Amino acid sequence: MISPLNATSAAPVTQSAANKEMKLREMAEKLETQFLAEMLKHAGAGEARGEFGGGAGEEQFTSFLREAQAQEMVKAGGLGLSEFIFEALKERMDDAG
Questions:
Q1: Do residues 36 and 74 make contact, with C-beta atoms less than 8 angstroms apart?
Q2: How far apart are CA 88 and CA 24, in angstroms?
Q3: Is the pTM of this model over 0.70?
């Protein structure tokens, strides 16, 4: 017979593992977002076009635009990089613990 103490003590371990996986997935998605934002920067996304650009203000806020675009790309599935990173981190976590 399982004592009530043992039955309840297993629940936090499962919850903790779920929290760790959720944090790993968040970290993987943030990394993919940063990667995509950098790729958009090097591709010239958000650069001023011609003489009628937005000046210094446009230059300063372009990085925010690229970051938002990269976040949306990741939400839509991105490159699949975040899933690959998540699986690699999860495997390392499972091996360590």
A1: yes
A2: 10
A3: yes
The total number of residues written for the chain in this structure: 97
How sure is the predictor about 37, in pLDDT bands with cuts at 50, 70 and 90?
very high
Cα separations (Å) of 10 from 15, 16, 45?
9, 10, 50
- The identity of residue 93, as a single letter, is M
At 18, is the secondary structure helix, strand, or coil? Answer: helix
Nearest C-alpha neighbor of 67 from the set 43, 37, 41, 30: 37
Residue appearing with tokens 């806020």: 61
> Which alpha helices (DSSP H) does the chain contain, by range?
4-43, 55-75, 81-96
**Each residue's pLDDT tens digit, 45-93:** 767 666 666 677 777 788 899 999 999 999 999 999 999 999 998 998 8
